[in-house]
Amino acid sequence: MSRTQISKYAQNAAAGAVAAGDPHTAAAAADVLADGGNAFDAVLAGLFAACIAEPVLCSLGGGGFLLAQRADGNSLLYDFFCQTPGQRRSVDELEFLPVHVDFGASRQEFHIGMGAMAVPGMIAGAYAVHQDLCTLPMAGLMRPAVALARRGIALAPLQSFILAAVAPIYQWSAESRALYDSRRAPEQTLRAGEVFALPALADLLDALSREGPDLFYRGEVALAIARFNRDGGGAISLEDLANYRVMRRKPLARQFGDAEIFSNPAPSSGGPLLAFSLGLMQDAPTDHPTEFLLQLVQAMGLTDQARQASGLKDQSDDARVAAMLSETFMADYRAQMPERATKIGGTTHISVVDRMGNAAAMSVSNGEGCGHVLPTGSIMLNNMLGEEDLNPNGFFQWRPNSRITSMMSPTLVRHDDGRILALGSGGSNRIRSAILQVLLNHLRLGQTLGEAVAAARIHLERDLLHIEHGHTAQTLRDLSQAFPTHQIWPERNFFFGGVHAAAFDPGTGAFTAAGDPRRGGCIA
To answer: Is 347 a catalytic residue?
Structure first.
């Protein structure tokens, strides 16, 4: 689907617009909109469907965030990300081991095993959102996912690629191999087009729709998770599950030109770092594309320095975020911006806007999975305690019973005239750079939403500049000369995130949406 088709298709939608990482995910959300549900009903339907359609990126064993704006203009951040266990076990009691995942142009180390699992928040978050914001019964929102899980789907090429990349994890245990190994290609994971079904998940969703979240946090599922941890080398107890709570937070709000941008506040770090980068780029010149990109690289590097200097790398809290975003602190870094500048992650995103003016930006993650599947529901369990990005002080150093920080940054942009844009991205520590570039492309450079999402990206990490295919030859030469330590990627790549965005203009009644082709993006 071309960018023009994306825009036209979305504007013709009557009930709302959806952007997501798989057609099944988007269709589940769109069907709920068509049935009279609001944006929050739709985003939950998409979430449950993504557990089948995007199995590495979304699992009931993970967690995430929803940034919600109601039609009355009030916004709220739902934090249902994973929590550390209440007590540590000694390292020699834990199952915790490294695996290496090859993404083609990049190779990354992850850690799996039951000792890498944190307390999941997905189900608690879904029910909290449902209680506060939804209009349709939970059984109806789960129904599309139940049907998909029971009958199975033909696995999309992107999902097959992701499974192949993380094969060392999804082939780690016998129970995982039984679900994710190919039926036609020996010793490989599921190939594109092969039918993938999770009948046990369908049964669990059915039961959850009747019994509610206590089934997961105090009942049969909780008992199974606690037993799995106790016997398999994990640290999560039944008490940890029973004590899990969803956090409702005031979003981090920053002005950018004539728009107000809302994002994920502390204890997550992605939103504050995104706000800092936007502050540095507020007045960047837009008359020369290459100069703008060079400024952007400078801003990325300075944001990493500010993360270290502010202490945000060690811990994100309201005081540190306020200090980092203070005008005094930012002025020192703006002064370093010259007038002319010299991981595959297990994350996905769903954006939904409706005709009433509700907007939902939901980012969720399972890490890459810990390699073990819970028999009850065929749930791949998360590996958040084994993610280097989420454990900057080293493994086994986490504070007991505390929310894990995250780079996930579901974002809303609100204009004075009522226009609203919901967006977010997967991509581990590339999340904020992907969202940043889409926002700058759209708000500063005047690109359409489709153009802003599709444009070639860059990403600076540890002094290595990653340059995505698609820049002009002159821009490539300029970037390569300015940053000798660089890597030019030969094609648009999953590595650079996947920004899915949906917008509504109440003045014209028009919807627009763009799904990022890097991560299977589609709209409905």
So the answer is: yes
